[in-house]
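Input record (one chain):
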Amino acid sequence: MPDSNINGLDRAARRAAANKANAQHSTGPSTEAGKQRTRLNALRHGLTGQTVVLPTEDHSAYQRHSQSFLDEYRPQGATETQLVQSMIDSSWRINRAAAVETNLFSLGITEMEDRIPASQPDADAALAMAMAFREHARAFSQISIYSQRLVRQFERALEQLRAIQAERRTHESRQLFDAATLFKVHQEDGLPYNPAEDGFVFSNEDIETYIHRSERLDDAIERASAG
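The corresponding structure, as predicted from the sequence alone:
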């Protein structure tokens, strides 16, 4: 092999070794810009690469926003959870778009103040807002289109979630009815009942609660009919 090739291989090997050594001693980004990029990456969705929470936004507020949806819809399984997450992110962006629109109006009004004669403050503010809208009509239009797309995305996710949850609850109701029937038979025979043996995910406590609620409901319906 020619000496030039050998020397080239040696240089490549030394360079690779140096890069490996530098990587081992690296402690991450040291500049504020580098740290900011690292924080930003931590808030990205793996597949889309879209930033949900901007660096200027309060991440704890986003967490509270998310939890409010999780508490309301109580998703079960990956599909329901994904749909609720889509609603969380869509509504967060809708709120952001509304804030941007308000800020754009405020910016425009500030920019137009010197162009409007200061005679009547209320009228001047109204004229400044109108001029701001005229000057930034394209930006307002883009915000509106963006918001409408997000609203449609939110509504589709909500519609799908409601359909899936309704189907799940209907299935659970049927399963509970069957489990309660078997539970009563075992009680009459003086035998313990294990719901898992029949493929149910409910506990005996769940089944007893269902039976108690059903009996109370039947009693209430009977009393209402008699009255």
